[in-house]
Amino acid sequence: MIGIYANQARLYLEMAAEPLSNGAAHQSVPGRYILPVHQRPSYSGNGKVAPPMLPVVDLGGDDDGRIAEEIIRAGREFGFFQVVNHGVPEEVMGAMMRAAEEFFGLPADEKMAYYSTDGKQLPRFHTSVRNGAGEEFLYWRDCLKLGCHPPEWPDNPRGLGAALEPYTAAVMAAARRVLRLAAVGLGLCEEHFEGPLSGGAMMNVNHYPPCPDPSLTLGIAPHCDPGLVTVLMENVGGGLQMLLHDDGDAGGGGTMWVDVDAAPGGLVLNFGHQMEVVSNGRLRSGEHRVVTGARVARTSLASFVWPELWCTVAPAQELVLAPGKGPLYRPYSYGEFLGVYVAEAGDRDAIMAHFKH
Ligand SMILES: O=C(O)CCC(=O)C(=O)O
Ligand SMILES: [Fe+2]
After folding, report:
1. Which of 42, 156, 186, 336 is the most buried (most CB within 10 A)?
2. Whose CA is nearest to atom 8 of ligand 1?
């Protein structure tokens, strides 16, 4: 009997999830997407910081010392930067984006064929943060999760796999170059991030349909990505915002949400929680959120590079031994970290409190 009720409850929850990209234009924002006032996009930090330009790092050329320095400077200040001459061919980027847009253009029932509440399943389609069911508030986003290592994709639309394989191979190569340069810039051996520490990868294909009132909701709530580094490509600018901190020499402790847009052909990179831990706090995990747009649908591809689940993550020894610097974080397995990340619903400070020394 209990089993029957449990099954019915599960069926109800699964049926309650409905994708935003259902073929119809939204006329108003349904109640469950309306966030409490202090969580809405108008909450913009305390506004004490002047918005800067997002640093552009040119990965071309062979002056690795200079490139490493630029990555470290941007990583320390923002945890975000753009890369150009990144080696991902324009046609490979275009084909991947077209395939992603084609997926979200499918009828809702064809997308729902990939819907699952099992967070470990790939590929997996969901809406809002997790599944769109049983969540207190819903966010204005549909998402298709794809495997990158190895590539795992839906059969529908048919060209998705053919576009995904070259895209992830090229994006992962660019991410590994950035990780090698970051290691050098931190004073670690070039291979520090290689092997199991960067052995996992997956992709969020995010889709934000036009929203009738972007002031009421968010596409994604403020969070840092869990892994080492994320490589992001978008089809239209506007939407992604990073939290800027004024904690430089002048102090002040101000924060402000600022727009992050890539130059044409560029990719946006941000460091995640694992980079902040391994660098013992020298590099920042870039906190970000997504605001919605009223006119156009936005699609973004976020490729995450992160450790294998069993891999132990800890501050690099070389960075802990410097005078006056103890380890800021205790060692843990990445599997343990992900459990906490999900349980604390992405809340940066609550997550890191579990791992601080
Ligand atoms: O859509 C974006 O620009 C960001 C997506 C994102 O933050 C994520 O998938 O973790
Ligand atoms: Fe993110």
Report:
1. 186
2. 302
